[in-house]
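Lab channel / #folding
Pinned by the channel admin:
"Please post every new chain as: sequence first, then the structure tokens as a reply. Keep commentary short and put observations after the output so the thread stays searchable."

First post following the new format, from NK:
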Amino acid sequence: MDRTADETEQPVGGVIVTPARRRWRVSAILAWVVVTPFAAWAVTRVGGLERGSFATPIMTATPYAAAGSLLPVLIAALSRSRWAIAVALVTTVALGFSVLPRAVGSSDTAGGRPLKVLTINMLYGRADTEAVIDLVKRLDPDVVSAQELTTGMVEDLDAAGFEQLMPYRHLQDEWNASGSGTYAKYPLTPVTDLFQPIGHNMPVAKLALPGGPSVEIVNVHPVPPIGRQTSQWAAAFDAFPAPSKEIVRVLAGDFNASLDHAALRRLLGRGYLDAADQVGEGLTPTWPANGSMPPIITIDHVLVDRRASVRTVSVHTVPGTDHRAVFAELGLPVAP
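Reply from TO:
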């Protein structure tokens, strides 16, 4: 049978239809549910608005919130909500600018009279004595600021030869977490009227550092901002002394605070530098150590007068204590 012209001109197999590509999209409501907590965190951090026993402790997790804030940006982008995208981006930028400079550093590390400071929380005097002595021998600090220094720990250190390494001392040891003490290679003169400590013992002493005038060392250890202690913690920061024109002052210890706490930033704003922050070590965690989980927050610090420079900062794990030791090499002005 003959085929018609129409039949011979028909394409073989019919017409190919390409299905429409499905695009991922989430609801605007879900986007705002994810974006809002991070935005609130950013507002609280930038504005220094943390209050109470809930918001204050969790501010130490701001570096992790900054990293996690990339997720809301992705969710907002998938929702195609312009406002959600804008808020998510601003949140990430705000948290990033709050955190990232600590990993970069900005200090002029040259010059100055050298001062080496080591601070360590001894955890109720449980820090391994030999490890502490080995660390001091290796780092050769001019001054050691010790927190949670018990009377038993003082005796154990001396029995192991610590007195030969650090012959000068100003101790306020106790049989609990309130004990503190300052050890030094050079003569120490106790200072009793600088400020009224709030919380644990916080001895102050003038260090007769060679090559210039004395340096004032403040051993810092406020209570942690937990429960009813939060107001006491905040009051301790307001009580700390500001820098002095007459003498270079160093604050070293367990601050129970990170640079994401407004209380510590206010103290820095009075004229101090955070040593670790100045050399790009400001995100190195110091607590908790020697446990089932690695250190996650940075609450041990060395603060120094802005007239000084910071050369190096290193953090060291010491068996027996839940705090890592912080070692800072500073350059002090020859004259106040």
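NK: The longest strand covers residues 113-121.
TO: also worth noting, The two ends are 114 Å apart (CA to CA).
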